[in-house]
Amino acid sequence: MKEYPYLSQALGNAIEIFRKDKGMTKSALADFACLERRYLREIECGEKKPTVNAIYSICEALNVSPLEFFKKVEEERVRFKRNHEPE
To answer: Which one is predicted more confidently, 85 or 83?
Structure first.
């Protein structure tokens, strides 16, 4: 399977951005999304790759459409790539 550079970090950043925008703690988001707090923390830190189910649960808990969420993920991935690749 192809690996996409910075995807895990971008997913985590997107979740954090939406979560903070909604004024939610990690614990509150984990509870609303029916996820283990540790699992959510590891996703936000870019240590775990979330399942599709987890992403949909997070989107629902944040009241964000998956389309809007993945648009933000791609913006973050491009930003990471731009900031970490040599000029």
So the answer is: 83
Q: Where are the domains of the chain?
A: 7-84
CATH topology of domain 7-84: 434 Repressor (Amino-terminal Domain) (1.10.260)
Q: What share of the chain has pLDDT > 70, as a percent?
A: 99
State both tokens at 35. 């996820």
CA 2 to chain centre: 19
Rounded CA separation 78/17 (Å): 16
Q: Minimal CA–CA distance to 19: which of 72, 83, 67?
A: 72
Asked whether the beta carbons of 59 and 15 are under 8 A apart, the reply is: no
pTM score, whole prediction: 0.91
Query: Which DSSP string corresponds to 8-39?
Result: HHHHHHHHHHHHHHTT--HHHHHHHHT--HHH
| Contacts (Cβ under 8 Å, ≥6 apart) of 23 | none
